[in-house]
Design brief:
Helices cover 31% and strands 28% of the residues. By secondary structure, it is of the alpha+beta class. It folds into 2 domains: 157 residues, Ribosomal Protein S5, domain 2 (2-Layer Sandwich); 117 residues, GHMP kinase, C-terminal domain (Alpha-Beta Plaits, 2-Layer Sandwich). Strands 1, 2, 3, 4, 5 and 6 form a 6-stranded mixed sheet that branches. Strands 8-9-7-10 form a 4-stranded antiparallel sheet, with helices on both faces. A hairpin with a 3-residue loop joins strand 5 and strand 6. The radius of gyration is 18 Å and the shape is globular.
Amino acid sequence: MVEEFAPAKINLTLSITGRRDDGYHLLDSLFLFANVGDRVTARPADGLSLEISGPRGVGLVADPAENLVLKAARLLQAEAGLTQGAALNLEKHLPLASGIGGGSADAAATLRALNRLWSLGLGLDDLARIGARVGADVPAAVHSIPLRVEGIGEKLTPIGPLPPFGILLVNPAVSVPTPAVFAAFNASGTSFAMAAEALPSDPRALLAVLHRTPNMLEAPAITLQPVIAELLQRLVALPGGLLTRMSGSGATCFTLYPSPEGAEQAAVNFAAEPGWWVWGGGLYNQSHSL
């Protein structure tokens, strides 16, 4: 059996810099990965199959045509020219359609797990190239390190070292489909952004840059789910936070803290509504072994 962790992705910033003729938006974003996520396990088998478990797996269907885990597995199998399969299990802990890349992280973890199970010997860059055919966030999730992500997710530039931030994540029990958020952005008539600034290494200067570079999908997501604005107000009111905003296309919002301990305590103290998902802790800072 091979097991891989699928950490949650956090968009510290998200600028939309243009739109291609095929409709894909061009992005410039800063990704961090939190030390919370799903788990993918793979066992030898004749064919490909997927079982879904975990507290957030209820209602998630292992549809071969839609599920990103199975899509990633089929692509890697075809790329390697294999006939052998795998029995996959997805242990789901992250909320669905929440702006923290759960599905992309699961697909990336599947690629890493099967690379090991099938002894393919592919590097992370090879897996990222295959993952780009699954989804725009998958290449970054294959690496799961702090990254500047540009284009449609294909241009990755490592950033860091970063301060030992803590992060509080809260999802207000609503899903925000990414296509709907981009449609709302297009309808808003908001101008495209210029490329983001270079990142300084000094923590105070870094935070100043982050405060000047927002998530451009936050406003259109709020038009679809006004509870996001309420959640952001509650997070800003908490003591000790360094930066608060929505991640990705929402609806999960976050606050950075100076340390993981500060974020953990904030999660304990946060007065969540029934059904809301709350987590506090540190950033994912491990290297994936292949």
